[in-house]
Hints:
Porin, mainly beta, 1 helix, about 200 residues
Amino acid sequence: xxxxxxxxxxxxxxxxxxxxxxxxxxxIGLGASSWMGDGYGPAKALFNQRIGVGVxxxxxxxxxxxxxxxxxxxxxxxxxMGDTKQTVNQNYFEMxxxxxxxxxxxxxxxxxxxxxxxxxxxxxxxxxxKTDDVTSSWATFNDACLNNVKIWDGLRRFDAGIQAxxxxxxxxxxxxxEGEFGLARMWKHGPRNLAIFATVGYKF
Length: 204
């Protein structure tokens, strides 16, 4: 327990020592998401968005710790039996936990390569099923019933996985690409999330 307290104290100390250099940012992104797993290879990607606030805390001259809070949309579209199509939309609050490496260039920007993990909590989503001209929908993270018969098991809200990205870091703004590879299954023996986003942001 003492070692845990010391670790927390060291992290907080590093944050306060570098407070004058800590850089906040606001980012938005557009990208695509899908599912990966047995039986979901043919799943089609959905175009989704991400918006969030982040912080970059310098640890050394070229290494920093990055975290923040993002609102991230994910999901997939796939076919069921017959002509039935199903579209699943999932919206999460996510917190990245990343180590970032800053590579200086002769130009007026740095190349920042970041990698680590993320954890997320599913907040809201909509699942839509279409058969011929009949469309039905329900909340993604809740169970759904039709005539007292369960037709859908709500997805697990917890999500976690690997995140990596590359940014061009200018003085007041940044542009980059971020990808997520989910490790948590959405239900027992179910698929995992996969997403990639092109992002732009403003530093303050």
